[in-house]
Amino acid sequence: MSSPRPFSRLAVAWVIMPSVVILLSAGAAMAQNTSANYAFLLASGFLCDASDSGACPALAKSTQGDTYEMTGAGTLTPQKKAVIAAGTFTHKSADGVVLATGAWIASELVSFDSYGIAPGALMREGPAIGPLQFGPKRLPMFSGSMAAGGLAVFRIRLIPVLGLTKNATLQINCALGQVPPEHHVEGIRLAFEGGEFDEEVSGRTLFLLTRPGAVAAAKAAVPEVDTKPAPTEVQQ
Questions:
Q1: Band of the pLDDT at 145, cuts 50, 70, 90?
Q2: Does residue 57 have a cis peptide bond before it, meaning omega lies within 30 degrees of 0?
């Protein structure tokens, strides 16, 4: 059987990349309009700060020294083991040579362990998350969402621009809330057959606990204003 042609890989990349852009631009908004319990950001959106070089992308390293740089966004529903997520990746050798680049898509939510909510996380400034910002490269926050910590494990597919697709396991850790001592380092880990990147080097992550009914409830609480003019009383 002939090996996959470079053209087919490029075609796949061109199909996936628009989806990645959409997810990176509206990950939080997606959860507001669905039944998903959480939206999440992986080294993307308002987590990225030009003054903090370690925020984006997220970086995991192997014992051999090569690295995977990753970004992404999506939604997940732990009770249903459901996930919709995608992002980008770059594989580099220990001396910084790019070995592969492409997109990843989630195929399964293996597990999600919540560390609880962190109500003040989005409001404080500093290296933990940074100030809330808006703009073309920032994700807007929506009412009814609250910052939360947790550990999510996904099965994903790595789809390089050139080369063969790989199945992998991606672990995303957000160190907010009641964080277990063994998971105090925020970042990602990646594992697949023949490779394990188990050192979280850098990268910001965030889970957003969503309340899909909050917006509707808020609208329902606002009384409707009658804009029709009252009938004029005719004097006899």
A1: confident
A2: yes
- In DSSP terms, 61 is beta-bridged to 67, 199
Phi (first) and psi of residue 197, to 5 degrees: -115, 90
> How many CB atoms within 10 Å of residue 129?
23
Across the strands, what pairs with 105?
A: 86, 157
pLDDT digits (tens, 9 = 90+) for 6-61: 444 444 445 555 555 555 445 445 444 455 589 999 999 889 987 888 899 999 99
Paired sense of beta strands 82-92 and 38-42, if any = unpaired
Dist CA 176 CA 205 (whole Å): 10
Backbone φ and ψ for 220, nearest 5 degrees, come out as -65, -30
Residue pair 161/5 in contact by the 8 Å Cβ criterion:
no
Q: Report how far residue 84's alpha carbon sits from residue 82's, in angstroms, rounded to the nearest whole number.
A: 7
In 41-56, which positions are buried (b, 16+ CB within 10 angstroms) versus exposed (e)? bbbbbbbbbeeeeebb
Q: Can you tell me the distance from the alpha carbon of 197 to that of 226, in angstroms, rounded to the nearest whole number?
A: 61
Amino acid 149 reads: G
- The domain segmentation of the chain, as residue ranges, is 6-221
Q: What is the pTM of this model?
A: 0.74
